[in-house]
Design the sequence.
């Protein structure tokens, strides 16, 4: 055995050996030198928060390939569940992060074809599916995942990420070395990887608050995009897309509203039931919005036991959703837990910076972390309502852009005056913003509404290399080109843009990092791929009907939620960012403006001017801008101090 492999498993919980897992995965291929176990140990140690229960290693016979796995145990007792996991003749090896929800059906089918299983969970399914159909196995999977299969006979690494990007995967390929990991921090343990920042990624960050697509904050590290896989043969990497949402649409034009409402209920109910399978305590995030309320209600209806629900509140009534979450908690008779986040909770930011690896400016990361931390005290698995807004047109910027288009048509020949009014009205006038937006094309109106800093503002914000980079390449042009490339009506172009950008790289990144920071597994029923395909096949009016966002989910809500639940309210886990940036967060930012690291990239005098204006004009929504600079400053300081 020792001549074939080097395999070590460290159990941290000897009393509970479980096969269905959330975890951290990593691996190395190096044609120029042998893979050492201490390299794998450093990578695994960096991911221990993702899998605190056990760590395993595998090194191939020729020492060119190594795999590591950190395990968070969830379901199915099995003494053969250790990872890295192999087939019978040890020619195919697996490290896997995620959940395959339809694994029982797949397992039964494989057994009928003669495959033998040593474990009872979903991990081993991937090995036998690979033996049966090769890389075509992805078509059969319903779940969230990132995994690597090493085919030793053929000298091939096969790495894949789920259709939506629920589970992360980073990779590096240069000078004969290929490495991958669930998080960027593990790759930074390898001395071969350059620490140079990607200026294009920074520019994207200050545009939308996150780093999209295959970019990472480091120039030589990339993200594997959702619904993509990598084949690596020791020489070259081949990256392919295996699922395309636009090609999966089907006709629903002949269905009545009642039929479509019932279909939505059936698909959501199936998705929730699949994600309720667990041998450990399970609960639901309850934000006060429609999406989490529907998930929680169905979960309660399908559960034999009382469910656990969790919500976050604030002292500021404008942002406090606890009364609306309480309506659902009362109706479902759940074990409900609330936590009020105080302003001094911002000290958590520096801790979160380490877990997010890259600059990330969605301020709801703070309440998401706190609700995850609170839930972890009671459960190990949580269901989330994320995804409904992208599927059914739930964001305010959709109605804003549609409003601008209608107004533009009504004003007709006056259109040529829009730029004049936009330039000459007082700076803090709402009409100035309206006419400035009216003067833009549709794609630019959408981008303007979701951007942190505009193109003009970046001219004042950037310094030195970052300013020079803007002369060569502007992130906005790439974004606008992508928006225009999507087909269909305007609502479809907007939701598809968010589905490919905002959903995986903001919403799902936030949920994954915040929950895995406390070793909590999060499942997202709205992002079952069959439900996604149904949503994007709907006639547009069933997603956004006039000014009525999420029209079809609201019809379902009328059917199964309490009558006193307000359907038109949408808040979610948001914080009073403006207040905090005028208070403790703003003072924290002031302290960071003198950082020698920050002044290499940012004109801190300009940022200070914005900070002063935000305190003077409280209605001026500068919170997101200031927060993005604060996060970048905190990240940069921690990153530079680690070099």
Sequence:
């Amino acid at each position: 055995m020792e001549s074939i492999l080097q395999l070590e498993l460290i159990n941290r919980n000897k009393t509970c050996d479980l096969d269905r897992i959330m975890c951290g995965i990593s691996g190395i291929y190096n044609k120029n030198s042998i893979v050492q176990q201490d390299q794998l140990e450093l990578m695994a140690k960096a991911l221990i928060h993702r899998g605190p229960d056990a760590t395993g290693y595998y090194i191939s016979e020729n020492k060119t390939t190594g795999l590591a796995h950190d395990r968070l145990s969830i379901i199915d007792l099995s003494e053969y569940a250790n990872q890295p996991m192999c087939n019978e003749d040890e020619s195919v090896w697996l490290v896997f992060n995620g959940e395959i929800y339809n694994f029982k059906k797949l397992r039964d089918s494989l057994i009928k074809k003669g495959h033998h299983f040593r474990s009872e969970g979903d991990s081993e399914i991937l090995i036998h599916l690979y033996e049966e159909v090769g890389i075509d196995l992805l078509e059969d999977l319903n779940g969230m995942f990132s995994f690597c299969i090493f085919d030793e006979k053929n000298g091939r690494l096969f790495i894949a990420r789920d259709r939506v990007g629920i589970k992360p995967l980073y990779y590096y390929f240069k000078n004969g070395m290929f490495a991958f990991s669930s998080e960027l921090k593990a790759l930074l343990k390898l001395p071969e990887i350059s620490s140079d920042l990607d200026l294009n990624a920074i520019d994207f960050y200050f545009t939308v608050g996150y780093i999209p697509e295959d970019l990472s904050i480091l120039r030589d590290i990339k993200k594997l995009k959702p619904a993509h896989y990598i084949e690596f043969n020791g020489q070259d990497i081949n990256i392919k897309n295996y699922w395309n949402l636009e090609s999966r649409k089907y006709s629903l034009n002949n269905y009545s509203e009642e039929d479509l409402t019932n279909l939505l209920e059936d698909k959501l109910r199936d998705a929730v039931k699949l994600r309720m399978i667990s041998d450990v305590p399970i609960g639901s995030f309850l934000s006060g919005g429609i999406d989490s309320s529907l998930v929680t209600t169905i979960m309660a209806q399908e559960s034999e036991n009382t469910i656990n629900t969790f919500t976050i509140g604030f002292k500021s009534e404008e942002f406090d959703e606890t009364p609306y979450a309480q309506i659902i908690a009362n109706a479902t008779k759940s074990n409900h837990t609330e936590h009020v986040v105080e302003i001094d909770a911002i000290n958590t930011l520096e801790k979160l910076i380490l877990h997010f690896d890259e600059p990330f400016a969605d301020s709801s990361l703070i309440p998401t972390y706190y609700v995850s931390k609170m839930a972890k005290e009671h459960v190990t698995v949580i269901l989330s309502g994320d995804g409904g807004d992208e599927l059914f047109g739930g964001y305010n910027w959709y109605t804003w852009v549609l409003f601008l288009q209608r107004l533009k048509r009504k004003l007709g020949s006056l259109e040529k005056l829009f730029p004049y009014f936009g330039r000459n009205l007082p700076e803090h006038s709402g009409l100035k913003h309206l006419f400035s937006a009216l003067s833009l094309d549709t794609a630019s109106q959408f981008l303007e509404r979701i951007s942190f800093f505009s193109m003009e503002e970046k001219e004042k914000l950037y310094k030195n290399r970052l300013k020079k980079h803007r002369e060569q390449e502007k992130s906005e042009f790439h974004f606008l080109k992508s928006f225009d490339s999507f087909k269909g009506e305007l609502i479809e172009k907007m939701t598809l843009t968010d589905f490919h950008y905002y959903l995986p790289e903001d919403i799902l990144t936030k949920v994954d990092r915040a929950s895995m920071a406390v070793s909590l597994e999060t499942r997202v029923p709205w992002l079952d791929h069959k439900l996604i395909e149904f949503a994007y096949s709907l006639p547009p009016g069933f997603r956004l009907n006039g000014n009525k966002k999420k029209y079809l989910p609201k019809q379902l809500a009328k059917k199964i939620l309490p009558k006193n639940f307000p359907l038109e309210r949408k808040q979610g886990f948001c914080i009073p960012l403006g207040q905090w940036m005028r208070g403790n967060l703003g003072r924290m930012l002031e302290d960071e403006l003198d950082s020698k690291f920050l002044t290499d990239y940012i004109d801190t005098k300009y940022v200070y001017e914005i900070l002063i204006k935000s305190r003077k004009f409280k209605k001026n929504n500068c919170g997101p801008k200031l927060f993005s600079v604060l996060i970048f400053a905190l990240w940069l300081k921690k990153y530079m101090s680690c070099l």
About this structure: Residues 6-243 form a domain with the Glutamine Phosphoribosylpyrophosphate, subunit 1, domain 1 fold (CATH 3.60.20.10).
